[in-house]
Amino acid sequence: MAAAGNGPLGGVRVVELAGIGPAPFAAMLLADLGADVVRVDRPGGAGIGIDPAYDLTNRNKRSVLVDLKAGDGPAAVLDLAERADILIEGYRPGVAERLGVGPRACLARNPRLVYGRMTGWGQDGPLAPRAGHDITYIAVTGTLSVIGAPDEPPTVPANLLGDYAGGSLYLVAGVLAALHHARSEGGAGQVVDAAVADGAVHLATMLHGMLAAGAWQDRRGANLLDGGCPFYGTYETSDGRHMAVGALEQRFYDEFARLLGLDEGTAAARHDPARWAELRAAVAARFRTRTRAEWTALFEGTDACVAPVLSLREAPGHPHLAARSAFTRHGGLTQPAPAPRFSATPGSVRRPPARPGADAAEVARDWDVPGLSGAAPAYPQGPAHPATPATPANPANPAGRTRPAHPTDSADSTHPADPTHPAAPTRPADPANPADPAADRRPS
Fold this sequence. Notes:
alpha/beta; 3-stranded antiparallel beta sheet; 29% helix; disordered C terminus
């Protein structure tokens, strides 16, 4: 593994207008890859109910406090935008414009700026001004409909499929592509309109192709990759845990059937969908005869495509993930390591989660924005991160986790605005009512 470093985005400056959900995660990914990310927090915090010391999506960043509703607030952000390569915001359409930090104002100060907008529904369209969350975005795209058992409601995939796959990763791809264009001969800055709904639609491209070809049924739990077939799914073990099976190819299936102990006649049901219920029952019965640890040991070192289903606390202890250092420890916290990996310019976790306002003087000096240096942190610095070891668990024995979980599940509800769509339907904010979502810097 390459030595720790600052990553391939060293020298790239990013301004993140603080919010919750996919925009902070996108900014974290840029920071993990070496970008100098300055998060502009608002006085009072983001309101997600988590101690900032544990919000890992703010690692590798620095934070300043700016009240965009104050007279000098917008000017401070514009000063930062003038010196930045990328700006990311996750407000409802029209909010950034009303606050004086929309694309038109920022690009006037810095024509080569990439202005990344992270929303749920996009900058225009009937739902653009409406509130939402991951689950509502993926619901209308069809992607939620394919997850879960056929006789049960769709299964909620946490907020990974919409917020982070359909949202954050598409925003990152977009702003980096736009940055490449801005830095090319004759290039210029531009607005990147990244919407969770758009990304979730795009993620299902292969399924739409299979649907058109007649290789995918438009119903849940009836297809090769949605749990419909008995050799691609999960099974409970005798100790109440689960094993995951992905033995799609014939040669992998043959090894799986042999190791599981299926007789030849039962295993042959693979080729007859009318017998899949029979095969599923047989596979389930076999898995219930041993513990997860026993099945893990049996399938270890084989090509049967079977793996134990581990919890978040167990995953760092898996031998493969440990060998590749997929998790790292920094500031007393075990956390996912930066990804992907680079041979010459590896990323690393260099800083703990940014505490709101704690880095104002440092950023003021490094970015030459003197007006930021007087901002006071919104939170006391307090003690260092807890040093209680979070020893990775043995996947076969998850007991022994001592430190309680600190949830980082960010409910997104992002929706910004674009000067190229000035008619996007929004309602005026009530500046006298700080609880008014339309006046709020956070997506609501």
